[in-house]
Sequence to fold (278 residues):
Amino acid sequence: MARNVFDYIIEEKLPFFWCEGCGNGIILKTIAKVFADLNLDPREIVVVTGIGCWGKADDYLSVNSLHVTHGRALPAATGVKLVNPNLKVLALMGDGDGLTIGGNHFIHAARRNIDITAIISNNFNYGMTGGQVSGTTPERSVTSTSRFGSVEPPFDVVNLAIAAGASYVARATVYHVNLLEKYIKNAIMKKGFSVVDVINVCPTYFGRLNKMKTSVEMMEFLRDNSTFNKNEGDINSNKFALGEFVNIEKPDFSTKYLEVQKQAKEKISSLEQDSGAR
Fold:
């Protein structure tokens, strides 16, 4: 049975909760479109979210969902995946939720190569709680807690994911929707830990405090400051390198764990046979 976007979105919940000009709606519709293009059974999808603006995404998706505490989407998603490896599991996290509060979980999910798709709505601040500086806020950027510019160096989500061992890593922006769709589709179909870093300027706080007063100006900022030359990317200089950075094949955690279980059962069976022979 062919499916469409609205087979995955709860229309009665519309319009979206997010601020005017926020790119979260673009990301959500893109995810639903990918679900439809892949003709995925909603009953076999699990979306796990944490706390924050992007954490509201599960409210609108007509799939299995799990809404957990701040920074804990990935361990919850890991539990779901290990119980039923056949499910398509997505962790939808903001930069504050997934990389700042939940940074340790992010590193270890990548290290283990858990078969989860992590989609980061990276808006450079804690958007829901007042626009405070986050782990991805570029240096010198103004936030509600760095009025004269942040002095902290930010995480580069792509570099962190690569260093920690993810199987698939890509970056797009909410301006480059066709690219975003392609990368989310590739990430969902990839076996292993997949990360899509989505640059999505917060219109209410980060944009207004950093000389982008309108949604149009923010979209122009994303258009004008994106590059496909990976050597030019520099988050601190507001130059975003887009593309696929890693796409490799290696066994995911569930595959390796099932093999260990198989070996353990064979060993136990062998010991029982030896014991019976005596």
